[in-house]
Amino acid sequence: MFDFTYFFCIIDDFFQKFEASYWEFLKYSNKRLRMRSSQLKLSEIVFIAIWYKCSHFNNFKAFFFSLKQNQSQLFRALPCYQRIVYLIRAHQLALHALHFALMKDCQSHYLWIDSTTLPVCKNQRIQRHKSLAAIATRGKSSMGWFFGCKLHLIMNQSGDMVSTALSNGHTADIKMVERLVEGLKAKLYADRGYISQELKSRLKAQGTDLITYHRKNMQAVSLSNTDEYHLKQRNKIETLFSLLKGKYHLVTSKARSIEGYLAGIYASLCAYQLCHQNK
Q1: Rounded to an integer, what is the distance from CA 118 to the centroid of its chain?
Q2: What is the per-residue pLDDT for 76?
């Protein structure tokens, strides 16, 4: 059951502290030349984007019309469909900030790292795809070729996200590790795609111990019983990716702009962080 009052209070409390800094940043970075006021508060715009990801709707237009018909009393004044789409797209940085704020204090001594693909269209339509051509690239995963981006993620044993990053589809997982673990000191468990003695040495100097299984053509590495146990728990991060894609609509082929695409991704991540009860 989606307790919209509880979740809105969490979001609104964050933006009461953050909103002034957010508008100041937009002003001085020239990302918004006009500060046109909206009928909705910033927290309400973000809340609608996250509520959609938690709903059973897979079409935002149908969700928003249902919201206007059945739940309009919850908001001061709901704008038209075109306006709410513009507002969510324009405030994707606010969703990004909320996502990072929710990751605060989620560090742990045992962490898991992996990545998942975010295809933006079917392979047959790559040549015709234009809306996200600036950031989407061809890549290959264990499931085959795809066209899109990648989500790189670190999680703890409670299922909380600790660090995330987006990259092009062709970016190797191993290249994103140091960016993800910056400031972290823990044991980091990964699959064989992260095997690199050079990377392991650099992370060790920073206080992070990278632990993986060895390949068949490599010399066997002796692992403690604790490390063996935690390596076998890597299926938890696969479950997290399944939830993001299946329940919180992380993957979409309907985005018509880069800003809207990023807003959808961060709304899905925030929806998981706020709603999922696998803690």
Answers
A1: 11
A2: 83
